[in-house]
Amino acid sequence: MSKTPVTSLGEFGLIDLLTANVKQYDNGTIKGIGDDTAAIDTGDNITLLTKDLLVEGVHFNIMYTPLRHLGYKSIVVNLSDIYAMNGTPTQVIVGIAVSSRYTVEALEEIYEGMKLACDKYKVDLVGGDTTSSASGLFISVTALGKVGKGKITYRSGAQSNDLICVSGNLGAAYAGLLILEREKEVFKANPQAQPDISQFSYVLERQLKPEARQDVVELLQQKGIVPTAMIDISDGLASEVLHISKASGKGAVIYEEKIPVDMQTATVAHDFKIDPTTFALNGGEDYELLFCVSQQDYEKIKDVESISIIGHVTDNPAQTDLISTSGNVIPLRAQGWDSFRGENRE
Ligand code: ADP
Ligand code: MG
C-alpha cells in the first residue's frame, strides 16, 4: 500500500478524498458535507449541525492564550458556522482531551469561558466527553442550531449580478496573532521584558476572544433580506469567495478599495511591511460573514454601517478576481490557514 503524506493534499483535498464515497441513508439529511454546517429536515424547522476542533500548538499557543478566552473562542467559532447558514444556535456538546500538564483550575478556566459564551449567545451546553491526552489539549465542540425552511442560506445559492457583502472588518485577528507571536519571541529573549501591547487591544481581542455575527443575522432578518449565499470567514476572504464561487458555479469580482480593514489592523500590517489587503484575503479567523444578496436588496443594505458591499457575482465560474486599488486584475487564490501545510502558527 502506498504511503502518501497528508501534507501533499492540504485540508480541502484531504476532506474531498476521505469523503468521496460517503453515502446518505436518512431522508432527513438535506445537506451533508460541503457547507458551514450539515442541514437536517426536522419537520417545521431545519436542524443545523457542525463541529470544530481546536488543537494546542496548531490552533492556539498556550503561552499567550488565556484559558478563559480559549474556552470562549471554542464555542464562538462553532456558533459562527450556524449563523453562516442564517440560523440560530441552540445547543453545544463539548469534547475535551487534556494532558497531565493541565490542572483542574486550568480546566475550570476554560469552562468559565465556555459558559460565558453560552450565556452571551443563549446556547445550552448539553453534554460532551472528557478524556486524557498523551500530550497537549484538544477541544472539540459540536454545535446544533435551527433555521426556518425559507431562510436557510447555503454556499451554493449565489446568482449572477448578486452583490457580495461582508460584515465588520477583515484581517484583524491575523494582525493580533502577529503581535502575539512577536511578543512571544521578545519574551523568550528577555523574560523580564514588559511589553506595552495596549495600543493593539482591538486586534488582540479579535484573535483571542472573537465574536460571532449574531447581530448581522438579526439585522438581515429585520430588513427582510435572505442572502442568496453565505459563509463565515474563518480561512480568509479569498478562500471563502472561492468556496461560494465553486459551490454556486459562478464567478466573482471583488474590489480591493471596498474591503473593510480597521485602522489598527492597517497599522500592524504597516509595522510588519505586509499589505493590509493580504491580511484580509489570507489572514483568517475573522469570523465575519461573507454573503451575497440580490441587486434588489441594494437600497436596504447600502447604508448599513456594519456591512460593506465589496463586489459582485459573475457568470463565469473560472473568473474569481480581485481588482486592485490601482486597477490590476488579480486572480484570487486560497491561501488560508492550512493545518496540513505547515503554514499554521506553530
Ligand atoms: P468550516 O471552515 O466552515 O468549519 P471546513 O472547511 O472545516 O468548514 O469543512 C468543510 C466541509 O467538510 C464541512 O461540511 C465539514 O463538515 C466537512 N468536513 C471537514 N472535515 C471532515 C471530516 N474529517 N470528515 C467528514 N467531513 C468533514
Ligand atoms: Mg464556516
List keywords for this structure.
single chain, 346 residues, alpha+beta, 60s Ribosomal Protein L30, Chain: A, Phosphoribosyl-aminoimidazole Synthetase, Chain A, domain 2, 2 domains, seven-stranded mixed beta sheet, 32% helix, globular, disordered C terminus, binds adenosine-5'-diphosphate, binds magnesium ion
Plain-language structure description:
This protein has 346 residues and is of the alpha+beta class. The chain has two domains: 143 residues, 60s Ribosomal Protein L30, Chain: A (2-Layer Sandwich); 177 residues, Alpha-Beta Complex (Phosphoribosyl-aminoimidazole Synthetase, Chain A, domain 2). It is built from ten helices and 13 strands. The chain has a seven-stranded mixed beta sheet with strand order 8-10-7-11-9-12-13, with helices on both faces. The longest helix is centred in the first third of the chain and has 18 residues. It is globular, with a radius of gyration of 20 Å. The C terminus is likely disordered.
